[in-house]
Amino acid sequence: MKDKITAAIDERRQDLIALTVDLIRFPTINPPGEAYTPCAEYIGKRLGAAGFEVEYVRGEGTPGDSDRYPRTNVVARYEGKGPGPTIHFNSHIDVVEAGEGWTMDPFEGVVKDDRVYGRGACDMKGGLAASIIAAEAYIAANPDFHGAIEVSGTVDEESGGYGGVAYLAGKGYFSRPRVDHVIIPEPLNKDRICLGHRGVWWAEIETEGSIAHGAMPFLGDSAIRHMGAFLAELEKELFPALDRKQTRMPVVPEGARRSTLNLNSVHGGQTEDFQPGLPSPNVADSCRLIIDRRFLLEEDISEVKEEVVSILERLKRDRPNFRYAMRDLMEVLPLMTDKDAPVPTAIADAIREVFGKDPEFVISPGTYDQKHISRLGHLHDCVAYGPGILDLAHRPDEWVGIEDMMESAKVMAMSIDALLKQPRK
Questions:
Q1: Where are the beta strands (DSSP E) in 190-322?
Q2: Which of 152, 245, 307, 367 is the most buried (most CB within 10 A)?
Q3: What are φ and ψ of residue 55, in 5° steps?
Q4: Can the keyword Transit peptide be found in this entry's annotation (predicted)?
Q5: Active site amino acids
Q6: Torsion angle defined by CA atoms of residues 138, 142, 148 and 154, in that order, rounded to the nearest 10 degrees
Q7: How confident is the model at residue 400 (pLDDT cuts 50, 70, 90)?
Q8: pLDDT at 43
Q9: Cβ(224)–Cβ(393) under 8 Å?
Q10: What's the DSSP call for residue 364?
């Protein structure tokens, strides 16, 4: 079977390249959610032609969903010749904005030097293409298999996944008895298996002031100065404390094996739309800060929040007129799948077969859609495995290696074979 799988994927090399190029050419930029529907329909049409039953599911009512920007997901299922386990490959179709610094059209899908370039090539349309080729090749090599294979293209992963995997998980698409095993082809390198991710807490903190004339700031109270006092306390107290927190989780890169805090944005005072004129002279009566706190398996979410709240409360006691409000935006607990579970075991064996080496088990520094499969679908036999180098994601001239996709597709197809042969629990 391994020889048949290898031969079937080798025959599809040019098809894999063309599929990756086609997927990149859909500018599925999130936000706002461009080209979701045509991209999903392209995937559905292809898999339908290969014998999959295809369903389109709109994440109605989820953040960003509208008639102009519908959150269109595609789920395709191929039934085998008899009952057995179901293996599901889930990839997100959305990409971040292209940004500046490209030396080529980010949505052309340029093929050069055994690479495919374009926004989303690495994260994660190369992985999606590899999973489709793996599924089609496996079916061709073993048409009499028992069980089922599913492939999905879902939206909004880059903004939390609420219109995609979270919505589908809430509807039972990622739960037993429908699905037993899930592989997410995120770009964590072709010889690595990603068991999970750190936790995340996003919050908005607002300091309050009192508006007054800018020529007489002593008659007002600057919310920006209050925010500055809070930021100074973070620098003095919290950042050094976070640097000292280390984890047993095998997070990559090395710098992410500790707690981190990113200050996403600060908004205060005048709006920025006064150009080409001049701003009016006012004391800022509001300043808002968005924070992104990544935390470890060893930390409790309540303690993570208390570290920030305690600083705010101390300033409220000690700093005259300090007032604040805090609003949670998102929280996700850290998770780590047992490396001896069926999916990581099957992928590990396939990596040994394809690469002749043991895999590296890692944890992602940031979250991805495994969080929803675990917390909403209550399905824990799920990991991320796919082609691509994580450091290339979201950067100019993003690319994915063609040989990397080929080898990853072989690993995926061999994993399908191993998982389908296991008794269903």
A1: 192-197, 199-208, 260-268, 286-295
A2: 152
A3: -135, 140
A4: no
A5: 94, 157
A6: 10
A7: very high
A8: 98
A9: no
A10: E
Beta-bridged to residue 181, according to DSSP, are: 87
pLDDT in tens, 230-254: 999 999 999 999 999 999 999 998 9
Q: Distance between CA atoms of 42 and 21, rounded to whole angstroms?
A: 13
Which amino acid type is present at position 24? I
Residue 271 in this model has a pLDDT that exceeds 80: no
In this structure, are residues 98 and 107 in contact, taking their beta carbons and an 8 Å threshold? yes
Same domain, 227 and 338: no
Q: Give the residue from 9, 341, 47, 43 showing the smallest Cα distance to 142.
A: 9
The amino acid at residue 276 is: P
Q: How far apart are CA 334 and CA 297, in angstroms?
A: 6
| CB of 371 closer than 8 Å to CB of 332 | yes
What is the distance between the alpha carbons of residues 276 and 274, in angstroms, rounded to a whole number? 6
Shared domain check, 376 and 317: no
Residue 89, classed as helix, strand or coil, is strand
User: What residues make up the domain containing 141?
Assistant: 2-197+334-420
| DSSP notation for 19-47 | HHHHHHTS--BTTTTTTHHHHHHHHHHHH
Residue 26 vs residues 35, 95, 97: alpha-carbon distances, Å:
6, 10, 13
Secondary structure element (H or E) that encloses residue 58, with its range: strand 53-58
Q: Which residue, of 289, 313, 332, is where some domain finishes? A: 332
For residue 265, tell me if it sits in a domain.
yes
User: Could you give the number of structural domains in the chain?
Assistant: 2
| Residue 326 contacts residue 204 (beta carbons within 8 Å) | yes
185 lies in the same domain as 55: yes
Residues 192 and 266 in one domain: no
Domain final position from 332, 367, 399: 332
Same domain (yes/no): 315, 345: no
